[in-house]
Amino acid sequence: MAKRRYTKKQKQLISLLTAVVVLVCFLVETVGPGWRRLTASVGLAPETVTAEGELEVHFIDVGNADCTLVRQGDFALLIDAGERGDDDAILDYLNRHGVTDLDLVVATHAHADHIGAMAKVIRALPVARFVFAPMPAAHTPTTATYVSMLEALDEKQVAVEAAQPNAVYEVGSARLQILAPLQEREDTNDMSVVSRLTFGERAFLFTGDAGVAVEDDLLYSGCTLQADVLKVGHHGSTTSNSAAFLSRVSPAYAFIPCGEGNSYGHPHEEVLASLQRRQSKIYRSDVHGDVVFVTDGTELTVQTEKG
Ligand SMILES: [Zn+2]
């Protein structure tokens, strides 16, 4: 067989191409894109755990804002803290339910209807762990609400943990798995921390204000989305809650945080109709006030303040 001879120039070109291929492989495997690495890891649903006692999920009525208390045994988790001015209502609710400290706080995203009263809550009660959406430079807000939340965290020396897809937090004997954000997106709503809480056979899905693009990310990632109770995305707006997403979640119950006569027209008719077509029983803060789900891991009951 004739041996092929390369000229000096051809050899230089081959060396250069080899170096480029090695560099590209290195970049794909190590520094990016993060999106690929994250989707690869998010498919792992937390294993089923034995439910001990009861799990309570309290959707606290803070009008068109968001605030959810989760209790399991002595453990208390708070997801979001309403609007500025909701601090008295939230702290009163926590006090009435015997919550003297918060083991875990999740702030879904930096909008005022989710972190409005967060600074006051942090100053009022000890907080053990605090999880927040990743905050790339393009998303760092300069609002007074955000700054005062950071100041309160600093004063109380509470570290901020960036939500990582597939991270699992123990909530007593329940488990909270972070599902999103899976990639950096332009809209702050789409940086919302999406999480799924499981207890025995029951599951709850909290979506913050994540929009359809994030729902598509989640559908594409293949993670488990099914939930008995869905905290409906973005206050029941059509910018969230796609048909494909609702079909995958297939919630028996849907809770919508929406203020009476809010200027956004939340919840949107299309979303209500879409939930009804899927036989989801709808609870909403403007009609039912505080809505509390209680489960022993099998049975699931709901109590409403009104309606
Ligand atoms: Zn919101």
Characterize the structure shown:
The protein is an alpha/beta fold. It has one domain: Metallo-beta-lactamase, Chain A, CATH 3.60.15.10. The protein has ten helices and 15 strands. α5 runs parallel beside α6. About 8% of the residues have low confidence. The structure holds zinc ion. The site of zinc ion has 6 residues, from α4.
SSE layout:
Elements lengths: L7 H22 L4 H9 L12 E5 L8 E5 L2 E5 L7 H10 L5 E6 L4 H4 L2 H7 L2 E6 L11 H12 L4 E3 L5 E4 L2 E7 L13 E6 L2 E5 L5 H10 L7 E3 L11 H7 L3 E4 L12 H9 L3 E4 H4 L2 E5 L4 E5 L3
Parallel strand pairs: 3-4, 4-5, 5-6, 10-11, 11-12, 12-13
Antiparallel strand pairs: 1-2, 1-14, 2-3, 7-8, 8-9, 9-10, 14-15
Helix pairs in contact: 5-6
Bound molecules: zinc ion (ZN).
The site of zinc ion (ZN) has 6 residues, from helix 4.
In short:
This protein has 307 residues and is of the alpha/beta class. It has helices at 8-29, 34-42, 87-96, 112-115, 118-124, 144-155, 212-221, 243-249, 269-277, 285-288, and strands at 55-59, 68-72, 75-79, 102-107, 127-132, 160-162, 168-171, 174-180, 194-199, 202-206, 229-231, 253-256, 281-284, 291-295, 300-304. Helix 5 runs parallel beside helix 6 (144-155).
Key structural traits:
alpha/beta; Metallo-beta-lactamase, Chain A; 15 strands; eight-stranded mixed β-sheet; seven-stranded mixed β-sheet; globular; 307 residues; binds zinc ion
